[in-house]
Design a protein that fits this description.
With about 325 residues, the chain is mainly α. About 75% of the residues lie in helices and about 0% in strands. Helix 5 packs across helix 12 (about 255-265). The two termini are about 35 Å apart.
Length: about 325
């Protein structure tokens, strides 16, 4: 395993540990303990975000077993949270907790499907066009620019209203189709930068096929950006579906957090003071969105040299004892 000169000079970039040197005493021992604590807490954004997302993913998987029938009504309507109904009830006696748990499946499915489709389209039009160049690059750039200048929300409303059979997956596909262009432009710019590097030219000189160069040389360098775009696409899809459902353009038979907000708004839950009806789904959207945002920030810190350098400099300053000079 070899490192570049910059990585050898900076252990933070190479991932290697510096030489232990002589035993540390006094100030050096305290500094070593502080450095260990910083290393263990360095990726707290990623781990907090991934833990919250894993929790919602587990709830989405087991939701059908926890709540077989979330639409089952009862004689008690608009009851505040209690031991029998943790999140209270709706105006027709439906358990809000059961609806929130069932809605987790729909919202998570929309985020995953839309994020995956967004990444696939952005890779096809961004990476593929930039790598092949010529006519293919011009054609893919034209398509991306057309989708990029079209207003997203009006197009999303029109396409969603035009589709006759709307379900959770169809809504996710529609959201992805109107939101992939920006990610494709970013991947195109990165691909143009990567394909001109020396190791790609060396692979061409060695008569490697285009597919092998794409899979072995180009895509591995784009994976952090692709992962960040998947997270950002999933977050945008969840928020877009909530907005569509709030406007009455969601899946009629589907259950999601946005549909709960739609029915709460139609029943004038805010006017009636039934906060337990709209606060839980809105809070779930906010928590999951914040978790995806933390993951996106952590990925951005890893792939952005400026952010990584700033973080290293900040940790270096914080490790100095009080009163010490540079």
């Amino acid at each position: 395993m070899s490192f570049t000169q910059q990585e050898l000079a900076d252990p933070e970039l190479s991932g290697s540990e510096p030489d232990a040197g002589p035993p540390r005493t006094g100030f050096f021992r305290a500094t070593g303990r502080a450095t260990g604590r910083r290393r263990t807490s360095r990726g707290w954004k990623f781990w907090v975000g991934i833990t919250v997302c894993a929790f919602f993913a587990i709830v989405a998987i087991v939701a059908p077993f926890l709540v077989p029938n979330p639409n089952q009504s009862s004689p008690v309507g608009l009851q505040p949270p209690s031991g029998d109904h943790w999140f209270g009830t709706t105006n027709i006696g439906q358990d809000v907790f059961g609806q929130v748990v069932a809605g987790t499946t729909g919202s998570v499915v929309i985020g995953v499907v839309a994020g995956a489709i967004t990444v696939i389209l952005s890779m096809v039009f961004g990476v593929g066009g930039a790598f092949l160049g010529g006519f293919w690059d011009n054609a893919s750039s034209l398509v991306s620019n057309v989708f990029l200048v079209i207003p997203g929300l009006p197009l999303l409303i029109i396409v969603t209203d035009y589709v006759e059979s709307r379900d959770i997956v169809v809504i996710a596909v529609v959201i992805a189709l109107v939101s992939w262009a920006g990610a494709a432009r970013v991947l195109r710019a990165q691909t143009l930068s990567v394909r001109s590097r020396d190791y790609v030219d060396a692979a061409r000189v060695a008569s490697e096929s285009n597919w092998r160069i794409m899979l072995r040389e180009i895509l591995p360098n784009l994976m952090p950006i692709i992962a960040s775009q998947f997270v950002f696409g999933a977050l945008g899809a969840i928020l877009a579906e909530a907005g569509l459902s709030f406007l009455g353009l969601g899946a009629p038979g589907g259950k999601s957090w946005g549909s709960i907000l739609f029915f709460a708004q139609n029943a004038q839950a805010i006017t009636l003071g039934a906060w337990w009806w709209f606060v839980p789904p809105g809070l779930c959207i906010a928590i999951l969105g914040a978790a995806l945002g933390l993951i996106n920030f952590s990925i951005d810190e890893r792939i952005n040299p400026r952010l990584r350098t700033a973080a290293i400099a900040k940790r270096s300053r914080s490790s100095r004892p009080k009163g010490a000079t540079a």
